[in-house]
């Protein structure tokens, strides 16, 4: 019984340290002019790798390359629905990802989130569907860093927003 109490206390302390660490992080904003979205990312933890040649998004990596975030937009060329895309993401094990296990899912009116584990990695996918366009956020990181990175992933996800009509309204530069 005492061992259990000690483990719970240690878990709470580790969570508080992770949350405090998230509060101290400095976030920077990436704005995508082609599809009109923005997202905040922790400067120093994730390093931008440069926008894709077609301007649809960007990849961010940690210094160790074990944490990856990618954001992109895409036109709905296959005439999919948000629900059909959601169902596709719910498939746990696939030929490409035989160790994938979905542990969380939520479908909103214009967005969904699917997350879980793929082998020794945590994955988090958020998709927004607006103006016949899909905006996608994909984050992966080691299970060993889950306690530290879950609150940071939550902050990043909350910042992922559609901002303006693509190609017609300029986005702020700051």
What does this entry look like structurally?
The protein is of the alpha+beta class and 174 residues long. It has one domain (2-162): 3-Layer(aba) Sandwich (Protein Transport Mog1p, Chain A). Helices cover 26% and strands 39% of the residues. The chain has helices at 2-24, 82-90, 146-159; strands spanning 27-32, 37-42, 47-51, 57-61, 68-75, 100-107, 111-118, 121-130, 133-142, 161-162. The strands form two sheets. A seven-stranded antiparallel beta sheet has the order 3-4-5-9-8-7-6, sandwiched between helices. Strands 1-2-10 form a three-stranded antiparallel beta sheet. A hairpin with a 5-residue loop joins strand 3 and strand 4 (57-61). The longest helix has 23 residues, at 2-24. The chain starts with a helix and ends in a 12-residue tail after the last strand. The relative contact order is 0.19. Residues 3-23 have low confidence and may be disordered.
Task: Please describe the structure with a list of short key phrases separated by commas or semicolons.
single chain, alpha+beta, Protein Transport Mog1p, Chain A, 7-stranded antiparallel beta sheet, 3-stranded antiparallel beta sheet, globular
CATH level 4 superfamily? Mog1/PsbP, alpha/beta/alpha sandwich
Q: Number of DSSP helices?
A: 3
* Portion in strands: 35-45%
The CATH top-level class label: Alpha Beta
- Count structural domains: 1
CATH topology tier name: Protein Transport Mog1p, Chain A
Short description:
With 174 residues, this protein is α+β, with helices and mostly antiparallel strands.
């Amino acid at each position: 019984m005492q061992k259990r109490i000690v483990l719970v206390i240690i878990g709470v302390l580790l969570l508080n340290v992770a949350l405090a660490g998230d509060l101290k992080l400095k976030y920077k904003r990436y704005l995508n002019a082609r599809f009109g979205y923005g997202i905040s990312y922790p400067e120093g933890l994730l390093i931008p790798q440069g926008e894709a040649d077609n301007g649809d998004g960007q990849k961010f990596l940690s210094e160790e390359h074990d944490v990856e975030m990618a954001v992109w937009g895409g036109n709905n060329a296959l005439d999919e629905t948000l629900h059909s895309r959601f169902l596709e993401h719910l498939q746990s094990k696939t030929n490409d990802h035989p160790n994938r296990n979905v542990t969380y899912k939520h479908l909103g009116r214009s967005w969904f989130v699917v997350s879980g584990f793929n082998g020794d990695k945590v994955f988090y996918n958020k998709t927004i569907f607006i103006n016949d366009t899909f905006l996608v956020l994909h984050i992966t990181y080691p299970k060993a860093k889950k306690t530290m990175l879950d609150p940071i992933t939550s902050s990043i996800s909350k910042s992922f927003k559609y901002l303006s009509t693509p190609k017609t309204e300029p986005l702020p530069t700051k």
